[in-house]
Amino acid sequence: MKRGMPLWQNVADYVRFPGLVDWAPSKPDVSIQSNAGVSQDAPLMSTLFTRRKVLTGMGLLGLGGLLGGCDYSPKLNFKYGKDLSDKIMGRTFKLKNTAGETVTLSSFRGLMPVVFFGFTQCPAVCPTTLARAAQAKKLMGRDGEIMQVVFITLDPERDTPEILDRYVKAFDPSFEALYGTPEEIAVAAKEFGIFYEKIPAGDTYTLSHTATSFVFDTRGNLRLGLQASLTAKECAEDLLTVMEVC
């Protein structure tokens, strides 16, 4: 990385971070180290998309509603992430995007929101997670077009709308960042069960925080939790499973 360049500006630097810290709300003083680097040379295996393609074909034949799991509460079988279909989280948060517009969960109706809490001066887990999301979106091909990454800052004191916008779009132009007052951020974090705290670092500070990504289906139902330890390919496969819900 060039001297003087912002830590997050060179996206390629982040796909090589081997160590990530995932802070669990129930154990805020314990860090879990995991090898969660995003593989840049992983082959795009056709088996990753077989299930999605079969369901799409059935839909064209008029069988999707019967066999594709298109009722309002289908059971989805995830291979890697945590099934959160029985959880009610994040339904009432209200924040602003970098254009100053008020955003709620319903703002993403018709899309598949992938919500992650972090901060732009995060040294490893945040940029690695965003780089992984960008790679997963590419692996999903056209299906990735409905995936909407939503990055919510936990550091509103330093993360201005301008900084947030440049930060998330360095990973993918479609990624969206949200901010609010410290009080609004605290409310949103509580809705998702997010743990975070300031850690003094000389004359400044850093943050420790939960590193889970929360995935909603296109109707706004929480479906999936993606841990920091998963690869882009593993995330892509589970995200395609979420898309089986019509």
From TrEMBL:
Single GO term (MF): metal ion binding
Disulfide pairings: C122-C126
Binding site for Cu cation: C122, C126, H209
Domain of life: Bacteria
Keyword Metal-binding: yes
Keyword field: Copper, Disulfide bond, Metal-binding
InterPro entries with a match to the protein in the record: SCO1/SenC (IPR003782), Thioredoxin-like_sf (IPR036249)
Family: Belongs to the SCO1/2 family.
Protein's recorded name: Thioredoxin domain-containing protein
